[in-house]
Write a structure and sequence with these properties.
Layout lengths: L2 H25 L5 H7 L8 E5 L16 E6 L2 H10 L4 E4 L12 E7 L8 H14 E12 L5 H12 L9 E6 L3 E6 L3 H10 L2 E10 L6 E9 L5
Parallel strand pairs: 1-2, 1-4, 2-3, 4-5
Antiparallel strand pairs: 5-9, 6-7, 8-9
Length: 233
C-alpha cells in the first residue's frame, strides 16, 4: 500500500473513533469473558501493563481486584475521555501507537485488543509490533487480538466490489465496514498464517494462538500471546 494512502486511512480511523466514541464505548463495555479466561493465567500482581488502543479502558476487567501499574494509550481524544469517565484513577494518554512515548524495556505486558486490523499496510503493521517490542522488557509478553472475519461472505463481496470500482491502493484483505449510516471503517482481514508470520518477523516467540468465539454469537477473534526474546534485536 502507498504510504500516503496509509496515513490518510490512519487519520480517517482516528476521526471515525472521535465521532462515534460514546456509542462505541457503550457497545464495548466489557472485555469478552472468553478472552479474560484465556489471558488470566498469564497476569501477575504488581506488573506494569501497556494497553495500546485502549478505547474506554475495558481491559481493566482483566485486573479486577489486583494491583497493577496500568497505562492506556489511544490516538482518539474522545475515546480517552470515555476511559477517564470509567476509570478516573487510572492513567490514560492520547498518543500514537507507531511512536510510543515510553523508554525501551519499560513494561512487563503489552495488550492490543482489536487494534492491529485497523493499521493499514504491512509496513505500518510491522512498525506497530516493533514499537510494542521496544517498550517491552526482555521476556515480556504481548497479547494481540484481531477480528476473525474470514468466513463472512459479505465482506468478500464488499472487497471484490471495491477492487472492481478500482478503489486504488488497497492491499489484499483490506475492507471497509459501515458503522451506522455515516462512518465507514477500514479493516485488514487477517488469517492465522499471516498474523503468525508478522509476529515472528517482528522478533517475538509465539506461546499460544487460536480463535476465541463469543458465546451465543457468530463473532470471533484470532488471539495470539507471544514473548519478546531476550536475544531479539
Amino acid at each position: 500500500m502507498d504510504q500516503d494512502l496509509a496515513q490518510k486511512l490512519l487519520e480517517k480511523t482516528k476521526s471515525n473513533f472521535n465521532r462515534i466514541a460514546s456509542e462505541f464505548s457503550h457497545t464495548r463495555r466489557y472485555l469478552w469473558p472468553e478472552l479474560v479466561n484465556l489471558f488470566r493465567g498469564y497476569i501477575k500482581y504488581g506488573e506494569s501493563v501497556l494497553d495500546i488502543g485502549c478505547g474506554n479502558g475495558r481491559l481493566l476487567d482483566l485486573y479486577i481486584g489486583m494491583i497493577v501499574d496500568y497505562v492506556g494509550i489511544d490516538n482518539s481524544e474522545k475515546q480517552i475521555e470515555e476511559a477517564i469517565k470509567r476509570y478516573p484513577n487510572r492513567v490514560f494518554l492520547t498518543g500514537d501507537a507507531l511512536n510510543l512515548p515510553f523508554s525501551e524495556n519499560y513494561f512487563d505486558k503489552v495488550f492490543s485488543i482489536a487494534v492491529l486490523h485497523e493499521i493499514p499496510s504491512s509496513e505500518l503493521r510491522k512498525k506497530f509490533l516493533q514499537e510494542a517490542k521496544r517498550v517491552l522488557k526482555d521476556n515480556g509478553l504481548i497479547f494481540l487480538t484481531v477480528w476473525d472475519l474470514r468466513n463472512r461472505k459479505l465482506l468478500s463481496l464488499k472487497y471484490s466490489f471495491l477492487r472492481l470500482i478500482k478503489r486504488s491502493g488497497l492491499d489484499k484483505g483490506d475492507v471497509f465496514i459501515r458503522w451506522g449510516r455515516e462512518v465507514e471503517r477500514y479493516y485488514h482481514v487477517f488469517g492465522e498464517k499471516e498474523i503468525r508470520k508478522l509476529v515472528k518477523e517482528a522478533g517475538f516467540d509465539i506461546i499460544e494462538m487460536g480463535v476465541a468465539k463469543k458465546e451465543k454469537s457468530k463473532k470471533a477473534n484470532i488471539y495470539l500471546i507471544a514473548k519478546k526474546s531476550s536475544l531479539s534485536l
